[in-house]
Design goal:
alpha/beta, Rossmann fold, 5-stranded parallel sheet, globular, disordered C terminus, nucleotide-binding, microtubule
Length: 318
């Protein structure tokens, strides 16, 4: 079992793909700097407040006897406009030119950059990928994910932060996930608490009992609530944020029948289009079969919920 030192020194490599992923990455790394007590150039603001080195997200460099931290990240886009905004921002000295890459027809140059970075890691944990499910870089994201999950990094963790198009934008309307079923039901919920004054007893008793009145849980999957607590205070962008600074925050992640079913249907439609445009490969067939099985599981579960509760089309469901 890994000790605390190993946990603090596990490295995570982040990929920000497309204009959406690049914008997300820009804001995330600003927040990382605030949370890890780093200045806009990657130097430590106050040595006394730096209890644990931010090795998980940053690589440590020595510049003129001063510790400088660089993001473990790579920004990828087919146009340079979004990346140029980062290079001209106040955080321009936080990055190096090698961390920005213009997309070409082949992903091999990007894979070489990733391999070159990761070969210097001591405890590489996995990837965190920010991208959009639509746009000019979506096909590249699929190809990159397929390559990363091959033999090279098949045992590593890959977490994706996927952004779906807004229904207000006409260009994205066909990609938007529509949710019209009245039988949506929560299968599992994770509550992530953050703050210096979080009391576990208060979280476990009062707040969760109140939230059970808002969501309807399936008896077939009695997982209930899972909670995580981070005792560090929340950070905000003081100069731009519209949010008030509070000492406590909570974020809810919910897996429900309606959203999952429509996500599977949208994925199947995209695979159908891909299979028509090119010869069906083994990976494409496996993905198609997996999504088809996942959709059938959710449909079966939703039908059991309808039958067990005696619901009909006129039954209100909140």
């Amino acid at each position: 079992m890994a000790n605390d030192t190993d946990m603090n020194h596990r490295e995570i490599f982040q990929l920000h793909i497309g204009s959406t992923g690049v914008e997300i990455g820009n804001r995330c790394w600003e927040l990382y700097c605030l949370e890890h007590n780093l200045a806009v150039d990657g130097s430590i603001v106050n040595e006394t407040e730096q209890s644990i080195p931010p090795i998980c997200f940053f690589s440590e460099k020595n510049d003129d006897n001063q510790k400088i931290y660089r993001p473990r990240a790579l920004f990828i886009d087919s146009y340079s406009s979004t990346m140029d905004e980062i290079k001209s921002s106040k955080y321009r000295n936080l990055y190096t030119d090698d961390q920005f890459h213009l997309l070409t027809n082949s992903c091999e140059p990007i894979l070489n950059k990733i391999r070159k970075q990761i070969e210097n890691y001591d405890h590489f944990e996995g990837f965190l990928i920010s991208h959009a499910t639509y746009g000019r870089c979506s096909s590249f994201t699929s190809e990159l994910l397929q390559t990363l999950t091959s033999d090279d990094y098949s045992t590593k963790t890959i977490v994706t932060n996927s952004v779906f198009g807004s229904s207000i934008d006409i260009a994205n309307h066909t990609c938007f996930v529509h949710q019209s079923t009245p039988y949506k039901m929560a299968l599992a919920t994770t509550l992530l608490f953050r703050g210096e004054n979080i009391v576990p007893k208060e979280v476990g008793q009062k707040l969760i009992m109140d939230m059970k009145q808002w969501w309807r849980f399936s008896d077939l999957t009695p997982t209930g609530f899972k909670c995580g607590i981070n005792y560090c205070r929340p950070y905000i962008f003081n100069d731009e944020s519209d949010l008030a600074l509070t000492d406590k925050q909570v974020c809810a992640l919910i897996n429900e029948t309606a959203t999952s079913k429509y996500l599977c249907e949208m994925g199947l439609n995209q695979l159908d289009q891909s299979s028509k445009a090119q010869d069906e490969s083994t990976e494409l067939i496996e993905a198609q079969n997996y999504l088809q099985g996942l959709r059938e599981d959710y449909q079966k579960l939703e039908q059991e919920i309808i039958n067990d509760n005696g619901l009909n089309l006129t039954t209100p469901f909140v």
